[in-house]
Structure formats: structure tokens, C-alpha cells
Amino acid sequence: MKTQLKLLQTQTFKTFGLIVFMLFTLVAFNPVYGQTKMNSAAKASINERTIKGIVSDDTQPLNNVNITLKGTKIGTTTNEKGEFTFPKKLKTGDILLFSYLGYEKQEIEINDKTSFIKLVLTEDLIEMIGALDSNKPYKSKRKKN
Amino acid sequence: MKTVSLILLFTFTLHLQAQISDFKTINFKKADSIALECKDEGLYNLPELSNKLTSPLTTDVEKFRAIYKWVCNNIANDYSLYLKNKRKRQRFKDDSIKFNTWNNNFRKKLFKTLLEDQRTICTGYAYLVKTLAELANLECEIVQGYGRVSTTDIENLELPNHSWNAIKLNNKWYLCDPTWASGIPNPETNRFTFNYNDGFFLANPKLFAVNHFPDDPKWWLMDKDIPTFEAFLTAPIIYGKAYENLELHIAPKLMHHVIKKYQTITFKYQLSKTTKPEDISLLIDSGFNNWKTKPTSASIKKKSLIIKHQFKTNGFYDVHLYIKDDLISTYTIKVKS
After folding, report:
1. Domain A52-120 annotated CATH 3.40.50.2300
2. Looking at this predicted complex, what is its ipTM?
3. What is the pLDDT of residues B242-257, one digit of tens each?
4. Residue A126 is nearest to which of B123, B180, B192, comparing CB atoms?
5. Which residues in chain B are closer than 8 Å to A67, comparing Cβ atoms?
6. In sequence order, what DSSP letters do the residues of B82-136 get, joined into one string?
7. Range of the domain at B314
8. Both B275 and B306 in a single domain?
9. Does the distance separating the beta carbons of B82 and A128 come in below 8 Å?
10. Does residue B102 belong to any structural domain of this protein?
11. Which Gene3D superfamilies does the record associate with it (chain A) (predicted)?
12. B87 and B167 co-located in one domain
């Protein structure tokens, strides 16, 4: 009986030890995670801001350039003067995708200091060629008698 | 851990094997109907268009299919732009400054026409397919090179005249030709008519090689039997319908033939769909008149089509192969005693 009690005591002690260890783990690792999360959230809300800009090519402003927040459907287009105001407030690390038919796509990452983007798009220097298919039967050129 | 890597390895191996069957199990109905639903979308917002076309689809091949089909169905071929460009390129071909100035100005004009009127020439098609595919995170390239059709001066192709696409799906490259798939000019009026040809979608590279010669040899997508430019220029003419009926054009390799009277000439093809020997006919043009005839013999075994035809009278013939009403290919045969 006594040995049984002793055995039970040792077991309880062991379980208790395990619980203490687990609690320790929780305390040891959880706050770190909680803190970073809070930090970034706080940072983001402070840093969120309206981004404006102007897009042109080497000669003139570009009208109707598409600007999308990467990974979303949120976007806008430039006006006739090439200007835009992005409809959603952006934070550091967000990426804007600029696309315009015939020009190379560009990605701009928002950094701590970004508030106005002045972007020059470069033309895709592709040689334009084109042959059509035809279902007109081939006809040999023959010497006329 | 070992089990996990084994499972991964197994899935990967299965995946690689699946490429050989090349999407035969995939039905493109959903992708095609999405392309149809987006008919009235313009080109002013390409990220949105690409997203609309691809977001309801799960596989890359279906996503690409929706993009490709949309471009083929909504972008018209501008025949007058094509002719003008061809003329100018020919005129400036020995003057690199004028040639480049023309190219630069023409490119601007072309993109404006594409954006506003949804009309273009080959490179515009290939460019748009590439742009939309890349917006959907697909790897796609424009291939520049030579296209050879019955109406081009087939023996004298001096300048690259055609563009098409290569698309990477499940780690493997495939070829397609959105321009030629979109339609053909009406033979009488030369006005472009939409007429989708499914044969140019992920076509067999060996068939593609009969009338597409890429500038950059990596786009043959073949390990061997890569034609020289001379061989390319002397190959038979194949038509759009060849891509809908054939898997391979095997023989003859040449367009022009000189044979003796009563000699027999043999044609070999691999078919891509079920065809009966009685569907095969030849249209023979002697320059004075033309007539449709059944070949001397036509046999089909396991989609391998072998045609033999004997020529009994002297003359110079244009010989056109037809499967039902589809014009497949042309050869010239000079028969002398």
C-alpha cells in the first residue's frame, strides 16, 4: 500500500513536472511571437499611406496605364496627363504592377519613403512582322505559250 | 520522412509520365466557354482580362487555353497593315537606319491599332498571348521566324515574316500559332474572316516544322531531324487544315518531283483523327484544266495513311491532297517519258 502511494506520488510529480515544462515553453516562446505580430501591425497602420504618381515613356505621359496591387484585383489607371492616385492606402512592402500594351511590365515595391512614384516605361522593342495563312491552293507559275 | 519523400518522388514520376499523353484527359469546354463569356472585354485592362479568363480555372493548360482562345476569337488580322509592312520591310531591307525607323514607327502604330480596334498582325497576336499568359503567371515566349504558306513567294523567303508562341506547361514547352488559328483571308476578297482552327493549339513540333522555321533553333522543340533552311524552302506546302487532320507529314519531303511516265509516287502521313480511305482524293491541275480523282491506292492502318498514285500521261501537275473537303497539302509533279 505504501509503495503504491509512493508510486502514485512519483507519477503525479512526473506529470506535474511535464506540465510545468509545457507552461514554461508557452511562456518562453509565445510572447516573442505575440510581440512581433503586434509590432508589424502597429508599424503598418502608421505607415499606410496614399500613393500618387506619374507614368510616361521617353517622350510623353501615358494615358490608361494599368496599375494593380500585386496579388489583388485592386487597381487604377493613369489619366491623360499620366497621373494616378492609388485607391487603396499602401504600406511598405506592397508591390505595384504597371502594365501598358507595348511596354515592358514594371513592378515597384513600396518602401518606407515612397509617397510619389515617377515612372518611365520602356517600349518592348519587338520587330513587328506578320504573314497570313491561306487556304488558297498553290498554283505553279507556268510559261505562257 | 522517408515515406513522404517516397510519395513525393512517386507523384513527380507520375507527373512526368502524364506529359507524354499531353492533356488528352482534359476537356477544354470550360476554358472555351470562359473565353466566350469575356467576348466584350477590351484590351484596356490586361491584368483584369487575364484574371477574368484564368481565375475560375485550376490547371495551367486550361488557363492558357482560355487566353489563347480569347485572342484567336477577338483579334482580327489586319491584312492592309500586313501588306504595308511587308512592302516597307522589303524596300528598306538594305538600309538599316530606315529599316529600324520604319520598325519603330510601325510598332507604335500597331499597338495603337491593337488596343483601339483589336486588329493586328502576327507579332501582335503573339505579343498579346504572351502578355496575358505572363499576367497569369505562365511562362510564355514569342517565337520569331519564317512562315511558309501557298501565297508567300515560297522559294524566296528573305526576311522573317511570322511570329508564334511557345508555352511552358508542366515543365515542358509546346508550340502554338494564334495568328493562323484565328482565321484566314477570304480567297476572293482578301478580307480577314474569323474561323478558328484548333489544329494550331499545342501542335506536334514535327508537323509545325513543315511550315514554321524559327530564328532561334531552340524553338524547333525537336532533338533530331531539324531541317536546314534549304530543306524548309523545298518542303511541300501544307495548309491550315493539315493541322486539324494530321499528326505528321512523313513523305514526300519535297515539294517538286520529276518522275517517269507510269511511275508511282508514294505519300505517307500520320492521321490525328479517324479517317476512311474513301475520304481521300487528289485534285490534279495540269495548267489547262483540273480534275478531282481517287488515288491509285489509299490504305489506313492504325492512323497511318499511305497513298500511292500512278501518273500515266506526260505533263506538269500541281497535285493537291484533300481529306473530304479539307485541303491538306500540295506537290508539283513533272511526268516525262
Report:
1. no
2. 0.79
3. 999 999 999 999 999 9
4. B123
5. none
6. HHHHHHHHHHTTT-HHHHHHHHHHHHHHHHHHHHHH-EE-HHHHHHHHHHHHHHT
7. 250-336
8. yes
9. no
10. yes
11. Carboxypeptidase-like, regulatory domain
12. yes
